[in-house]
Amino acid sequence: xxxxxxxxxxxxxxxxxxxxxxxxxxxxxxxxxxxxxxxxxxxxxxxxxxxxxxxxxxxxxxxxxxxxxxxxxxxxxxxxxxxxxxxxxxxxxxxxxxxxxxxxxxxxxxxxxxxxxxxxxxxxxxxxxxxxxxxxxxxxxxxxxxxxxxxxxxxxxxxxxxxxxxxxxxxxxxxxxxxxxxxxxxxxxxxxxxxxxxxxxxxxxxxxxxxxxxxxxxxxxxxxxxxxxxxxxxxxxxxxxxxxxxxxxxxxxxxxxxxxxxxxxxx
Length: 267
Hints:
Number of strands: 5
Strand order of the largest sheet: 2-1-5
Number of helices: 8
InterPro entries: ELMO_dom, ELMO_domain-containing
Protein name: ELMO domain-containing protein
Domain ELMO: 87-248
Pfam families: ELMO_CED12
Organism: Urochloa decumbens
Largest sheet: 3 strands, antiparallel
Helix content: 40-55%
């Protein structure tokens, strides 16, 4: 995973609704916050726990079905975007059609992509941090929650900042943050957050894609609440992460749809 995944361009909003791209800023993975032990025993067997600073590091024994479920998601995470792969090209074109229906795409390398919030004319250069799954996340969002997707893409809601976050690159940052937060590159969960998520993944194999949509929508809400501008993006991501961790550790969360922030999504 590219540690430079947080690089993005600021987007200046104009009075007529247009956008202009500005210089880059950087975000880093959000800090880990402590968690309760409410989820131990709900589907995963905790075999050890030890303190390291303020973070409880746990080890869980997984069943075969749990291992298989986690491995399928990890296999997705490992796929890098390949601009020569026809399926990847097809997915990128599908994202354009979902974002700007009725507007012809002139090419996979085009200045048009900047209007979606990519750093330059070639979106493939922005997938280093999130891989192909970050494109899959955006495409899933556009197809399953089109109303919320368009609201974020077009910055329709709230009193927006003069310098806005770029939609597409922010989406890649959300994917990257979730992979880090959920510890999805580990062989098995090493935190309660990871264990909770694996339970949700067992209940719904698209749990990662759905929580991505929740996170993106929640991030935009935090952005508005904090009256943020592009210099505040890292702080917004950290605040979003803390909110997600609190929600995932609520005792009555049995499905992704039970998360309080799920209600913010609109189809």
